[in-house]
From TrEMBL:
InterPro entries: BBE, FAD-bd_PCMH, FAD-bd_PCMH-like_sf, FAD-bd_PCMH_sub1, FAD-bd_PCMH_sub2, Oxid_FAD_bind_N. It is found in: Secreted, Cell wall. Its main location: secreted. The gene is LOC111281186. The lineage of its organism: Eukaryota, Viridiplantae, Streptophyta, Embryophyta, Tracheophyta. Pfam families: BBE, FAD_binding_4. Keywords: Cell wall, Disulfide bond, FAD, Flavoprotein, Glycoprotein, Nucleotide-binding, Oxidoreductase, Secreted, Signal. Its cofactor is FAD. The keyword Transmembrane does not apply. Residues 77-251 form the FAD-binding PCMH-type domain. This is Berberine bridge enzyme-like 17. It comes from the Eukaryota. Residues 1-24 form the signal peptide. One of its GO terms (molecular function) is FAD binding.
Length: 540
């Protein structure tokens, strides 16, 4: 921190807190009336009444649940939204902001509904959900190799539409095909091409944003501070992202993938140890993720760990096998383990579909079915976990059972982009990122088992603290975890925000606060982990 700015920051912790400026008491009827009236300001052919669901509408519950990915968040919610506006036109988003603000409701913004803590559909203060499910157009312009993509489009739809136009263009974004572009990009967005092209936000050129006054802004009119902030700072603190303009990236007509599994008996510990040393140094075309799961056999003491090596190579089998042989010889990767396919087919491979599945599933699977309960935490590693640390991890996993741990290699393009280029600060120096997920279903106790699973996930996280990043222990915003510091839904504590802010954004938190103060000084857009405005603004 520099000069007077630092002083103000420190003062703010000691003295000030910020508060909501909503004055009117929450009134549903007035809100709904406002929507209809406000809407008449915006002329278009899509009536807003077709977009409004209240608990009186028979399909309210199914619309509410449709894009709630985590049953833990859904079932632990204490308050339902008073209304869901499933915007059919951009003006419906504008009207929702103007009317919610006027009538004292918080707005929760939902694109794909994958928030790990359900912050896009749960709040403990009276709220409405603005659901962007229907705003999902994708316009690709091959002459400039760019595209405008609306927030409600899924990653799968985007990949499909790109592949329709070209076999040699792609886009670096998430592995899961049902993520909403709105939330996914605004928190970073990474996938199997991260080491080659960085994150989604590293390839974003422009955006459309509805601000707290209901205006639609673009990159030029929102200004560079705000445009910087929404690329990794979480859109939800700054406004409603209606669409993103992206730069497509070149890919070869065929890529190569593999998936091989090794248990402890097959040398998984040595392989994992070695992977940590080399995965971040491999050529940028190669990405090898590890997925670690306990295997519990029928007999007593019959337990092991299975490590799955999943590879993605922007090239052909021969080159891949040679690279793996030179760097991870003990994996013993064979040409017969490798599958060559188009990039869009590799998306299906990563999403777990059998070889030969039609790419139509990318359009058909807009929401995830088979929903479960889960809790996820994230960690960054700047040093190799010693073998003793791996043993600790294995032992815990074998006792937790319903868990998986994913290790994603960094390096490559990720290490070339400076920490302050975007709010996402986890760049050079990181060997890999880890995701710990406990997952369970109704058969394992459903919502009643929540505390037990949360406890397991915390135990694991604590056990890894000697090896993980420190001061701060960094965390990935897109892997939302309220344990790293959070406030209530009104978010009234700047000191708390500085705690999670440092973990998600490191020194970039300051500039995010500045951007927030520019675009939303009254803190209309907020949640349990949002960016607060500069506390002193009201005293100016
Ligand atoms: C099964 C699964 C797989 C995943 N795989 C990956 C992966 O491969 N790579 C990766 O990077 N991440 C991955 N994630 C994490 C994912 O990127 C985040 O959960 C992301 O926030 C999801 O965006 P969404 O729009 O689907 O979710 P939502 O729940 O709709 O939104 C997430 C957050 O963004 C806000 N938001 C949503 N839309 C907007 C908008 N239009 N304007 C402003 N704010 C908005 C919400 O209010 C909320 O705070 C995965 C998550 C799940 C559940
Ligand atoms: C949140 O803020 C609103 C508006 O100021 C207020 O009415 C409400 O009591 C607050 N709720 C909580 C839980 O702090
Ligand atoms: C829309 O019209 C209403 C009623 O005339 C007015 O109060 C409101 O300020 C207008 N909103 C905008 C964004 O122009
Ligand atoms: C919900 O019900 C209200 C009142 O009956 C109606 O005006 C509105 O059109 C309904 N919404 C939808 C999306 O059908
Ligand atoms: C729901 O219907 C009841 C009975 O018709 C009515 O009193 C109430 O105002 C309606 N609520 C909303 C939010 O439309
Ligand atoms: C994958 O499917 C294609 C046809 O869709 C087929 O040619 C190929 O042999 C299959 N590969 C494997 C390993 O099954
Ligand atoms: C959870 O507990 C409640 C109350 O004891 C019980 O009715 C319900 O069946 C339980 N649910 C599950 C999935 O076990
Ligand atoms: C939010 O901040 C207030 C004020 O410091 C604090 O009392 C409260 O416990 C915090 N809430 C949560 C959920 O952390
Ligand atoms: C995970 C594991 O080691 N499973 C083994 C348990 O024992 C049975 C019977 O001996 C084996 O078939 C499993 O492979």
């Amino acid at each position: 921190m520099k000069g007077p700015y630092a002083l103000l920051f420190i003062t703010s912790i000691l003295l000030l807190s910020f508060s909501s400026v909503t004055s009117a008491s929450a009134d549903v009827d007035a809100f709904l009336q406002c929507l209809r009236k406000q809407y008449s300001n915006y002329s278009n052919s899509k009536p807003i009444t077709d977009a409004i669901y209240t608990p009186n509408n028979s399909s309210f519950q199914s619309i509410y649940e449709l894009r709630t990915n985590n049953l833990r968040s859904l079932y632990s919610a204490t308050l339902k939204p008073v209304a869901i506006v499933t915007a059919l036109h951009e003006s419906h988003a504008q009207a929702t902001v103007v009317c919610a603000k006027r009538h004292g409701f918080q707005v929760r913004i939902r694109s794909g509904g994958h928030d790990f803590e359900g912050l896009s559909f749960v709040s403990n203060v009276p709220f409405v959900i603005l659901d962007l499910f229907n705003l999902r157009s994708i316009h690709i312009d091959m002459s400039s190799e760019t595209a405008w993509v609306q927030a409600g489009a899924t990653t799968g739809e985007l990949y499909y539409r790109i592949s329709e136009k070209s076999r040699v263009h792609g886009f670096p974004a998430g592995v899961c095909i049902t993520l909403g572009i709105g939330g996914h990009f605004s928190g970073g967005g990474y996938g199997a091409m991260m080491r080659k092209y960085g994150l989604s936000i590293d390839n974003v050129l422009d955006a459309q944003l509805v601000d707290a006054n209901g205006r639609i802004l673009n990159r030029k009119s929102m200004g560079e501070d705000v445009f910087w902030a929404i690329r990794g700072g979480g859109g939800t603190s700054f406004g409603i992202i209606l669409s993103w303009k992206i730069k497509l990236v070149p890919i070869p007509p065929k890529v190569t993938v593999f998936k091989v599994q090794r248990t402890l008996e097959q040398g998984a510990t040595d392989l994992t140890y070695r992977w940590q040393q080399v995965a971040h140094k491999l050529p940028q075309d190669l990405f090898i993720r590890l997925e670690v799961r306990p295997l519990i056999g029928p007999g007593k003491g019959n337990k092991t760990i299975q490590v799955t090596f999943i590879g993605h190579f922007l090239g052909q089998t021969d080159g891949l096998v040679q690279l793996v042989k030179a760097n991870l010889p003990a994996l013993d990767l064979q040409p017969s383990d490798c599958l060559e396919m188009s990039w869009v087919e590799s998306i299906l491979f990563w999403a777990g579909f059998p070889n030969g599945t039609s790419t139509d599933v990318l359009l058909k699977n807009r929401v995830q079915t088979n929903k479960v309960f889960y809790k996820t935490k994230s960690d960054y590693f700047k040093q190799v976990i010693p073998k003793a640390g791996l043993e600790t991890l294995w032992n815990l996993l074998m006792n937790i059972k319903h868990i998986f741990v994913q290790l994603n290699p960094y390096g490559g393009r990720m290490a070339e982009i400076s920490e302050d280029q975007t709010p996402f600060p986890h760049r050079a120096g990181n060997l890999f990122k880890v995701q710990y997920t406990v997952v369970w279903s109704d058969a394992e106790g459903g919502i009643n088992a929540t505390e037990r699973y949360l406890e397991w996930s915390r135990t694991l996280y604590n056990a890894m603290s000697p090896y993980a990043s420190k001061f701060p222990r960094e965390a990935f915003l897109n892997y939302r975890d309220l344990d790293v510091g959070s406030n209530d839904s009104n978010n009234t504590d700047f000191a708390v925000a500085m705690v999670y802010g440092a973990k998600f954004f490191k020194a970039n938190f300051q500039r995010l606060v500045r951007a927030k103060t520019i675009i939303d000084s009254h803190n209309f857009f907020k949640n349990e982990q949002s960016i607060p405005p500069f506390p002193s603004h009201k005293f100016k």
